[in-house]
Amino acid sequence: MNPSRRRFLGQSARWAALAPVVPVGRLAALHGEGAGAGVSEDAGARRGNNLAQDAWVARARARIPASSGSVYMQTGGIGPSPIEVIDEVKDRLDFQNQGPAHPDYATDMARVEPDLRAQLGRVFGAETDEVALTHSTSEGISIVAWSLNWQPGDEVIISNIEHPANVVPWYVLRDRYGIVIREIDLSSGTHLLDEVRAQLSARTRMVSISHVSRNNGRTIRTDESAELGRLLRARGIRYHLDGAQGPGCVITDFRSLGCDCYSTCGHKWLLGPKGTGALFVRREALDDVQLSWAGSHSHATMDYEGNYTLLPSAARYEFGTRALADFAGLGRAVDWMEDIGLGRIDDRIQSLVDHAIEAVDATSGLTMTSPRTRPDRSGVFVLKLPGGCDATALYNDLRDNAGILASPVRQPRDLRLSIHFFNIRDEIDAAVAAISERCA
Ligand SMILES: Cc1ncc(COP(=O)(O)O)c(C=O)c1O
Q1: 225 and 366 share a domain?
Q2: N or C: which end of the chain has fewer CB within 10 A?
Q3: What rounded mean pLDDT belongs to the chain?
Q4: Which of 266, 228, 205, 217 is nearest to 79 (CA)?
């Protein structure tokens, strides 16, 4: 066997066994350079946190370069990959480019996509043939948005807390086909089912909302989503969830959510390569979720006399030459997260959010727009700044002068702290203190 291939196939080192990255830059002090894999949780320990838990966090965190150079709270925008993922992509590219079309290499690379479909299905509650690999959440949303034969006056229901990726496609369909966009209020505390019922009409053909909102972190609970799914299915209305902020941030099980389609990405909370994603489509809905884009690889059979059959699986939504090294990296990212434990990650995020709520409650002038209680909340933690404090100006100031990476979101006074498991309580305290100093 080719030595490089052997090296590649032999790569099974697990995150726990590997050496930590030493923190660099101006935040080394905050991160306790040299102390226990570069992380000081003294403040957390004083509050009685579980030190055993903190040790695994320190080990995993030490593998994420971005976490040592800044207070990284932008996972809801783009997640920082661990070294294992970065190396996987590099190694796969090296391997592939020794002979991209040569069977010695191409045969191995051809396993990447089927393996990843199976893995994502297993981890996130779909059958392998319900998984299509995409390059972003937006790609999945567009596949779904264009999957109906829209007629003038047909209606789609979205919400007031959507990302542009789940708004712009509907504007385009409105302008091209005359569809009507209706909006529900998913601010914290409203009732999902009541909101949807109030907007349903005989013309409703699709409901498309965020599983976890990037604007307020509200999470559609699995039980309410399943109930909504039953309501919509009984009326023949397609139900799509935008899951960009779902997997890796909240426990996500496609089947239990009861939607027909679920679009997500690898480059946020799963910490995968940028430009990776997946679309899950319920097997029973495959023939109704029609293709608008197709090409080589969408088909099972075709000839040049006008005949074709599509693949019997969601892989029919894929076509063309694909970024296999990146998809391999996504597989590695999911492995890495699973090795740590998705349940453990979820618990850790929730305990950090508890801490963030306490810190905000103790700071006059700051409030939160995110839901306060589990499971309606998530690691997407959004603050309402005091009057006169602009979120974009604050975001620039925090980045340039305090090394704290946050994100302004939809409203001018809303600032998002994305809290992932690798964040530490000291960072939350530092962020809240820096915001308070500048704004409160
Ligand atoms: C809720 C939501 N949907 C969609 C997107 C777009 O994601 P992608 O870049 O994977 O297309 C984002 C990105 O921030 C998001 O937060």
Answers
A1: no
A2: N
A3: 90
A4: 266
401-437 pLDDT tens trace: 999 999 999 999 999 999 999 999 999 999 999 999 9
Structural domain of residue 111, as residue ranges? 93-336
Nearest residue by C-alpha to atom 9 in ligand 1: 136
Beta carbons within 8 Å of 368's beta carbon, 6+ residues apart: 357, 360, 381, 382, 383, 384
- Calculate how far, in angstroms, residue 141's C-alpha sits from the geometric centre of ligand 1: 10
Cβ of 220 closer than 6 Å to ligand 1, yes or no, is no
Average pLDDT over residues 33-49: 41
pLDDT at 41 (0 to 100):
47
Establish whether residue 244 lines the binding site of ligand 1, counting it when its CB lies within 6 angstroms of any ligand atom: yes
> Distance, CA 364 to ligand 1 centroid (Å)?
32
User: Which atom of ligand 1 is found nearest the CA of 138?
Assistant: 11
pLDDT at 19: 37
Same domain, 269 and 365: no
What confidence category does residue 36 fall into, taking pLDDT thresholds of 50, 70 and 90?
Answer: very low
**CB-ligand 1 contact for 266 (6 Å cutoff):** no
**Beta-strand (E) ranges in 28-150?**
71-72, 131-134
How many whole angstroms from 243 Cα to the centroid of ligand 1? 8
Q: Quick check: CB of 136 below 6 Å from ligand 1?
A: yes
| Confidence grade of residue 69 (pLDDT, cut at 50, 70, 90) | confident
Listed residues 336, 371, 397: the one ending a domain: 336
* CATH code, 388: 3.90.1150.10
pLDDT reported for residue 54: 82
Looking at the fold, whether 130 and 221 belong to one and the same domain comes out as yes
Choose which residue among 75, 135, 138, 418 to substitute to test ligand 1 binding: the one with the highest number of ligand atoms within 8 A of its C-beta.
138
Same domain, 286 and 410: no
| 378 in contact with ligand 1, CB cutoff 6 A | no
C-alpha–C-alpha distance, residues 74 and 77, integer Å:
5
Averaged pLDDT for residues 10-32: 43
Instruction: End-to-end CA distance of the chain: give it in Å, rounded.
Output: 64
Number of domains the chain contains: 2
pTM: 0.91
Whether 176 and 264 map to the same domain: the answer is yes
Cβ of 133 closer than 6 Å to ligand 1, yes or no, is: no
CA 74, CA 268: separation in Å to the nearest integer?
A: 9
Query: Which strand (E) or helix (H) includes residue 281?
Result: strand 277-281
Residue 349 included in any domain: yes
Percent of the chain with pLDDT over 70: 88
